Fold each of these.
Amino acid sequence: MKLSSYVVIHAVFGMTLLFGSKNPVIGQTPTLGKIEVVDPALNQLIPTDAIVELLVKDKFDWAEGPVALPKEKGIIFSDIPKNMLWKWSEEKKLEKFLHPSGYTGKSKFEGREPGSNGLAFNKKGELILCQHGDRRLAILEKDGSFKTLVDRYQGKRLNSPNDLVIKSNGDIYFTDPPYGLPKQIDDPAKELDFQGVYRLSTKGELTLLTKEMSRPNGIAFSPDEKTLYVANSDPLKAIWMQFPVQEDGTLGKGKVFYDCTSWVSPKKLGLPDGMKVDAKGNIFATGPGGVIIFSPTGKHLGTIATGVATANCGWGDDGSTLYITADKNLCRVKTKTKGKGW
């Protein structure tokens, strides 16, 4: 395992092209897709002249899990098939950050998604990773090794932890679909007969919160942490659920926050996946078509339409920049709001 910080050199052609245009325009910032306004309230969150700035084009196999680096203007994010983390910063652009990131076994991984997925920093500044191949939540140690936080529920191995969110008290809430298993739901190594949403307390106690969702994926808290949102990346039931959070940290009865099953089509690539919430409770959720923006009441305000399957997003810089991992690309949108916790 290596922690490295060398820059990946990429070509510079001496001019900037506007991607997606039939006639590329010299001197303009490369873009990916467009911002679609459904409700005028979106203009309070995203400037009317905002663009989807393309930072890195066609470099990754499947980019995921962007999280801001606390002390610099940059982010790190997963490339799941490549089993590695990348770093992007304004100063140095794209660099390799960590390999392996999610599968540390010696034998060849037979599936497509061995690497890390969702990422988060705890209050100590330690990086927590959802590791597909190793089927666990782990902390990245200073020497580049990993310490297991949890890899079993009631003695049975987890499927492949996918995404996580850390509550203000330090408890970790995470989802566990089968996407990291070589044969996914039909993998013979799958030990649990459900896909769960869990809470790992600061005392190390693991609690199953719900197993009612077929493909739990992205996960986020409302600003007051009284509601937990969970995406379901099932094309037959493409929904976001919302659950009331009880005083003891468990969940009450959930209900559908938004159902986009009818959107799923070759014209709108992607499924409900990663998501983030801003300080006012608006939800920025990746799904069919790009990043879908909802009000706290579940009203569709607009879409950052990337035109490609879009995995996740995360706040960065001063908290107002939304970084987006969109298939093989990395892009960002500068907003008028700020992320929860900034």
Note: The domain at 2-28+61-267 is CATH 2.120.10.30 (Neuraminidase).
Amino acid sequence: MTINDMYPGQKGNVETIMKGSSALRRLFELGIVPGAQIQVINRHPFHGPVIVQIGNSRIAIGRNIASTVKVRLEEDK
């Protein structure tokens, strides 16, 4: 599953990032690294960005990049 497949409110952990080195570096700078917990806050319509929360930060990322970040969903407790 990728960030693009997640719905608002869902949480997961980043598994892998399937993108080139420059995009990978930028995602790492934003805290989107393997093992990081991520939560989708909002998905804007019409191919707009996905708003995610990592720690105390909210970040907007484009759908193209969001489709390259594989996530393992957290199970509800």
Note: Residues 3-73 form a domain with the SH3 type barrels. fold (CATH 2.30.30.90).
